[in-house]
Amino acid sequence: MKILDTKFMKGFIKMADDGYQMGWHERNGGNLSYRLKPEEVEDIRQRLNDNQTWQPIGTTVPGLAGEFFLVTGSGKYFRNIKVDPEACLAIIEIDDKGENYRIRWGLVEGGRPTSELPTHLLNHAVRFRATGGKCRVIYHAHPANITALTYTIKPDAKTLTRILWQSETECAVVFPEGIGIVPWMVPGGTEIAEATARLIKHYPAVVWSYHGAFASGSSFDEAFGLMHTIEKAAEIYLKAKSVGIVNTITDDNLRVLAKAFGVTLNPAFLD
Ligand code: 13P
Ligand code: ZN
């Protein structure tokens, strides 16, 4: 099957373009990865190349040995993905130890997978375990409001989660576990990857202070929808805060909401 005609490729490109249209991907900002299903790999196997050398991932992900991922390329612009996916994206294979990757398709003009590959793969490994294998998408974006919000609070998951839960009624239903946050760190390395992975074990998304956010999901819709919900709540908070907050969603409101929607809110984040 033609790789560009597959459903997962179309879904990936649509999500990347949706993110660009939202204004979350200035220049080469942000990156996206998708773990292929075994049948999706079989459908395209004849069109994969095997002439590329193995490269170190920069971390070890034994739980992802042998998996295939569709990922954005480092330095590639989200606005160009729809126009030239073969130059902007790559399908990579992980070796049998989870230490190296090789490019099996894409990046036809050269280049390498996103500089955040260690964070993407560690997050995939952790969310795979946390969701019983359901998680397939890890998404990094630079939305303005959630990034601006990190300048106004201590980098603390309880503080951030309560602000978001109280800024839009359905937030607590969308992410009842809460949202994690890491303090400012140098992007693109193993240290920030490990700090993010420690948090994404407990939360479906993690905010990077003064930088952006990582969201996970079982589908493109779920990961995009989570990023969108977080960003919109942050926007509402900043708007309300700039005028002056006189009322809010109370903890009792949150408890009633959780009961009505059948979700369990992280008790550590309720007062
Ligand atoms: P890449 O172009 O390497 O994906 O980096 C973009 C980015 O957002 C780094 O955090
Ligand atoms: Zn970034």
Task: Tell me the β content.
Answer: 15-25%
Mean pLDDT: 98
Instruction: Kindly provide the radius of gyration, computed on alpha-carbon positions and rounded to a whole number of angstroms.
Output: 19 Å
- Secondary structure: helix percent: 40-55%
Strand arrangement in the largest pleated sheet: 2-5-4-3-1-6-9-8-7
**Bound small molecules, deduplicated:** 1,3-dihydroxyacetonephosphate, zinc ion
Q: H/E order of the elements?
A: HEHEEHHEEHEHHHEHEEHH
Secondary-structure-based class equals: alpha+beta
Largest sheet: 9 strands, mixed
- Report, as a whole number of angstroms, the end-to-end distance: 54 Å
In total, the number of strands is 9
List unreliable stretches of 5+ residues: none
Categorize the overall geometry.
elongated
Specify the number of helices: 11
What does this structure look like?
There is one protein chain. The protein has 11 helices and 9 strands. The chain has helices at residues 7-21, 38-44, 78-81, 85-88, 117-130, 144-149, 157-165, 171-174, 190-200, 220-243, 251-261; strands at residues 31-35, 55-56, 68-72, 89-94, 100-106, 137-141, 180-182, 205-208, 212-217. The mean pLDDT is 98. The structure holds 1,3-dihydroxyacetonephosphate (13P) and zinc ion. The site of 1,3-dihydroxyacetonephosphate has 13 residues, from loops.
What's the helix and strand layout?
Blueprint: H1 7-21, E1 31-35, H2 38-44, E2 55-56, E3 68-72, H3 78-81, H4 85-88, E4 89-94, E5 100-106, H5 117-130, E6 137-141, H6 144-149, H7 157-165, H8 171-174, E7 180-182, H9 190-200, E8 205-208, E9 212-217, H10 220-243, H11 251-261
Parallel strand pairs: 7-8
Antiparallel strand pairs: 1-3, 1-6, 2-5, 3-4, 4-5, 6-9, 8-9
This protein binds 1,3-dihydroxyacetonephosphate and zinc ion.
1,3-dihydroxyacetonephosphate is lined by residues 28-31, 72, 74-75, 114-116, 140, 187-188.
